[in-house]
Fold this protein.
Amino acid sequence: MKKTYVLGNWKSNKTVEEARAWIDTFHTTYTNPAPDTIVIVCPQFIHLPLFTATTFPAAIGAQNISAFPTGAYTGEIAAASLTGLVSHVMIGHSERRTHCGETDSVVIQKVTRAQESGIIPVVCVSEIEQVKALADAVPEFSSKGGMLLYEPLSAIGTGQADSPERANAKAMEIAAIIGEAPILYGGSVVPENVHGFTAQSHISGVGVGGASLDATKFINVIRAAAQTV
Ligand code: PGA
């Protein structure tokens, strides 16, 4: 049976107190709806120790890492420094590509850094060309456990999710280039539409932005993804 991934991306949201409250609610309310459902929460770096200080019942990811190794790179957070704090890291989210000038070559360096440190890269793509650049530069991406998050730009934060069928067709196209890597869909995923995506043949889960900020709503996304509601 295929695994279903639900990745929550908090982006640059929440104070430490708000993060604590979210974690408390999640702890009190959440039970894994199915053993093959894998939940990954990606908060800001400053919140990561709050999660590991508890026995948090889901995986934790970062939203970014440095393209450089450990060393004299002031202000950067090296992949190796995240060892033990996170199991996954998002790389190349479209907001980073747009606002921080992240190119395919930077994305590829970050993928290499993550894989060197045993952290699973979740590479975000919105164009097939980005997948081709990744596959050409890192042919072992899939065999080393990498994951892809496909997010059409028109669907991110707009309330206008793609159609599950169109997203699945895109996931098939991506799979033909990248191989076995799980492919997630992201963009305006909510409890009401999530199962349409997770039911598709080539979609292995979802990335959730806005709907992950409220713990109860996020739990509803997870349950609906696993079709237990
Ligand atoms: P959204 O964001 O769910 O708020 O559309 C998704 C994302 O950017 O990962």
Summary: The CA atoms of residues 12 and 44 lie 6 Å apart. The first strand starts at residue 4 and ends at 9. The two ends are 19 Å apart (CA to CA).
